[in-house]
Structure formats: structure tokens, C-alpha cells
Amino acid sequence: MLRLSQGQLSLLEYCPRRYQHTILESLSVPASPELLTAQQWGDRFHLLMQQREMGLPIDPVLEADTELQTCLSQLQAQAPQLFDTTGEIFRQSEHERSLTFQDYWLTGVYDLLRLWRDRAEIVDWKTYLKPQKQQHLQRDWQTRLYLYMLAETTDYPPDALAMTYWFVRVESPDTPTPAPQQVRIGYSAAAHRQTQKDLERLTQKLTDFLAMGLPFPQLPVGSDQCANCPFAVRCQRGFAQETVVSTLPSLDEIEEVPI
Ligand code: SF4
Fold it and tell me: Ligand 1 pocket, 226 CB below 6 A?
């Protein structure tokens, strides 16, 4: 059974050919040093929050990274409710959840899951320097899939669920001190039905592409998405830098991925 994460759903919706290269053929694209540094900081923050939730000592980690220390203390000062476990019946960081859907296996890892008798909240830590807009996050497959899976795998009605993104590294305009910001997204029966429909559409598309046994469709020539795509040369869209694409193996060199 093929696994589908939120990232894979986003890729499939963004461009089927890019999904094919990235997921089915495991073609990787070297990240820029700036992106790598940002990702590593994000990983450290997630690990810190996990260790904290598990009751493991975090002082040595904080002593070695003052920015982590500042972000955590700002978050604790600004959002004490995040750390208040009163009334919770379940709380777990890095909580894994999965669900069989058609012939696929939907999966997700919640940074933090909090359950009360009458409601549930998924918390996600974001370590970008700027917050994302509510509208964008509402449409994002991470939000949609995570809430959908929680509704399907628990007895809570959709309107008792919410997902809260915490942008922990956002700087305040006046001082260089981080001023964490949150974006809270509620859920509803209508949103649940819409996600179900979109999942059916997307998974059916994937099933059809796989059954055809042909290269997955590309986007039309001139699409904006191709301009920044690392597979542009391979796709004969001509925008990508040769240095990036030349690091990718040719299709013939890639072992078949069992599906
Ligand atoms: S270049 Fe365009 S068509 Fe090709 S994979 Fe990238 S986004 Fe898709």
C-alpha cells in the first residue's frame, strides 16, 4: 500500500510529474546552505519540545543554544496555556497517526496532540522567520489532512477539533527578540466533507496515473511553477540551473520503487 503524507499530497496537487520524480523515483535536490541551516534549527527546536514533553533534561540543550532558550522562554511567557495540562486526558508530542483510505495509507506526525473530554487540538511548531497567513494555512494539506485524520480516528465531532500553528521564531518589529505568533484553524463538518472529496479526487488521480504506466503529466508550458522547479531541464522547461540538475541521476540509473 502506498503511503501518502501531507507533503506528498501537496506535491501531487502541485505537479504530478514533480511527485513522480521526487517520491516514486526518489530524485533529491541539494538544499541551499541557508535552507539547510534553517532546517537544522527547526529540527533542534522540535527535538527540544519533544524532550521537554517527555520530561527529559533540556538544560544542556538550552545552554548550548541561546536562541533556542529565548524562543522557548518567549513562548512560555506568551502562551502559558500551551503548557497548562489542566483537564487534559491525553497529551503527546511527535504523535503518529495513520488511516487507510482507498488503496492508500495516509500518515501524519503531530508535533503535539492535546485531548480533552470535549475537544482536541493539534499543535504545530513552525520555525520560519515570518508567519504564514491564515488563508494559506487553511488550504494547506498539512492542516487539512491532520484534521481529517483526527476526525476519522476519534469520536470527536469535527467542530470540536482545531489545529494551532505556533510561529516561534518570528521577530517583533521593534526588537530582535522573538515574539511568537499563533494561527488557529477550526474545523467543521463541511470542511471535513470537502477534504474527503478532495482526497478521493487526488487519490483516484494517482491510481489512474499509476495504472497508465506512463510518465506522470507535466504542467502546461509557461506555468509559473516550472520557473523555480529543479526538474525544469529534465522537463524541457529550460529554467533550471544545470548545476542542480546535473547532480541528479538519469532515469535509467534509478531502481524501481516497489508500490
Ligand atoms: S518543471 Fe514544471 S512540469 Fe516539470 S516537474 Fe517541475 S513543475 Fe512539473
Answer: yes
